[in-house]
Every structure is written in structure tokens, then in C-alpha cells.
Amino acid sequence: MDKPAKQRDAEATKARILAAAKKEFAKNGLAGARVDVIADRAKANKRMIYHYFGNKEDLFQIVLEEAYIDIRTAEQKLELNNIPPREALEKLVRFTWTYYLKNPEFITLVNSENLHKARHLKKSQMIEKVSRRFVDMVARLLERGTAEGAFRPGIDPVQLNITIAAIGYYYLTNRFTGSIVFQRDLMAADALDERLRFNIETILRLVCVEL
């Protein structure tokens, strides 16, 4: 049965507000973001934002949750259990790098939340649930790879997750200063391809029994 027009309009408005808020928070952080700008971009008024999402802090938390849910959902769709362990690990590294490149707002939102010492994530039960599911997925991959003799035993899935994220995250968050310090355009197409190859090789050498 079709949803009533009023309900569809409300959902469309919420979606526009969230999309506008994501851009504003990613660009200016929580402190610098303005609800007026979000309302203007979303073609909504401030009363509607407060009605649907509460205050600016509440809206930021929802945007942050949605950002994490998006990447965690995309990771689950990789279906790593159906791929040989080494190929699955390479696919995860490749996905993480590509996701960061295609979704730069995710990185800036995470940076902003770290400035606030994760006070919004601390209140989120949803983040705990989706993050646990991701860690469990990587743990199963490591167990399967170890059982098949492809991976070294005893690798902590949390440490591996942090390392996979870090080798892409650091490169991209420091791309401007890095381009000056290392005297190369870190965002040139060939440089990005080279970095992905390096990331994959680094993780495989860390985890695999032999290459």
C-alpha cells in the first residue's frame, strides 16, 4: 500500500535536511556549522529541522551515525565469506581506500567528532551495534584464513581494522601538507594507484603466511 503523500513529503524533507547537514558539518565542523545554511540548502525552515531532529547537536549525532552506518552497511555487502581469505582481505583494503576517496565527508565528520572527544558516539547505541558486526566480520575472515593456512595466527581483528583504516586515512587527511613535504602530488591518479598497491601489499605482508 502506498504511503500517504504527507508521509512521503516528510521523509523527503528529512532526507534533504540530512544531506544538507552532512555537507555543512563536513565543511565547517559542529561549531562552525549553521542551521540557517542547512535549512536554506534543504529548502526547509529551521522549525522543521528542530521538529524532526532536535537541536544542532542532535542533528550532528544523527548525521554522524548515518555516516558510520553507510560505510558499515557497504562493508557487509562485500560478502567476504564467499571469497578465498586472501582475496577477501585484498577486497576489504581496496574497498576502504575507495570509500574514503568517494566519501571525503566521512573523514571530515570523523575528524570533527574526534575534536569533541567522541561525545556524540558515546551516546549512540547504534554505532556500537554496527561496529561490533564489522569487527566480527573481520574476525571470521582471520579465523578462516588461519584455518586454511593462509594467514598467521593470533592477529587481533581490531588492530587489523585500525591499521587498514589508518594507512588510507592518514594519507588523505595529510594530502595537502604531504604534497609539499614529499614534493609530489599525492592526489594525482598515478599516485593514488601507487598508494592503493602499497596499502594492499602492506596488509597482505602483515597478515599472510607467504606472498
TrEMBL record:
Q: Which residues bind DNA?
A: 34-53
InterPro entries the UniProt entry points to: Homeodomain-like_sf, HTH-type_TetR-like_transc_reg, HTH_TetR, NicS_C, Tet_transcr_reg_TetR-rel_C_sf
Q: Which residues cross the membrane?
A: none
Q: Which UniProt keywords apply?
A: DNA-binding
Residue span(s) of domain HTH tetR-type: 11-71
Record carries keyword Disulfide bond: no
Task: List the Pfam families.
Answer: TetR_C_29, TetR_N
> According to the lineage, what is the superkingdom?
Bacteria
- PANTHER family membership: HTH-TYPE TRANSCRIPTIONAL REPRESSOR SCO4008, TRANSCRIPTIONAL REPRESSOR
What is the protein name stated in its UniProt record?
A: TetR family transcriptional regulator
What organism, scientifically named, is this protein from?
A: Sinisalibacter aestuarii
